[in-house]
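Re-run with default settings, no changes from the original entry. Doing this only to confirm the output is reproducible before filing.
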Amino acid sequence: MSSKTTESGNATVQTPQNENSLLGSILLFVPMMALFLGSIYSLSFLTLGNPWPMAVCLGLFFLAFWIPQTITGRSDSAGGK
């Protein structure tokens, strides 16, 4: 596959190499990785008497995967449409 947008009949085919801009990917990656690492860090405060760090962990972990897949629509970015 080339890294260019190619014409196939009347349809434009985008290859994975040029589908997302580098800046857009970085701007999405950095906050999602911060959410993911924050969820792991919250587990350092977990004790048997305090369940809230686990709730925070699950919430941040959920957001780190849910936001890119639903709000930004990145779950189907590598597949054909």
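The chain has a mean pLDDT of 80. The two ends are 17 Å apart (CA to CA).
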